[in-house]
Design goal:
The protein has two helices and three strands; from the N terminus they run αβαββ. It has helices at 11-19, 39-53; strands at 26-35, 57-70, 73-86. The chain has a domain at 26-86: 2-Layer Sandwich (Dodecin subunit-like). It is α+β, with helices and mostly antiparallel strands. The protein is 27% helix and 43% strand. The chain is elongated.
Length: 89
């Protein structure tokens, strides 16, 4: 069985097109989340931190993964993400 990478979301296309009729302005920020547990947890951490100050989050796009390695072991997982949110007027 061949492992396939998960489909990458394209915030600029998928989410914005779906929300175009509901909201007129979507803003996108880029963040890097980190975790000592996993890449998934690093993504969740980026979302948790963003949600502390950003309202109306509507989507997230994972741009890439990196890791810090020490003694041949991953010691920190990092996820580069874009987070989209609706701008209130």
């Amino acid at each position: 069985m061949i492992a396939r990478a998960p489909r990458k979301l394209h915030i600029e296309h998928d989410i914005i097109n779906n929300l175009r009729t509901v909201m007129s302005v979507i803003k996108i920020i880029e963040l890097i989340g980190s975790s000592e547990k996993s890449w998934e947890d690093a993504v969740q951490e980026a979302l948790r931190e963003a949600s502390k100050t950003v309202k109306n989050i509507v989507g997230l796009d994972v741009l890439g993964h990196k890791a810090d390695v020490r003694d041949n072991k991953i010691v920190k997982y990092k996820a580069h993400v874009k987070i989209a949110f609706a701008v209130e007027r």
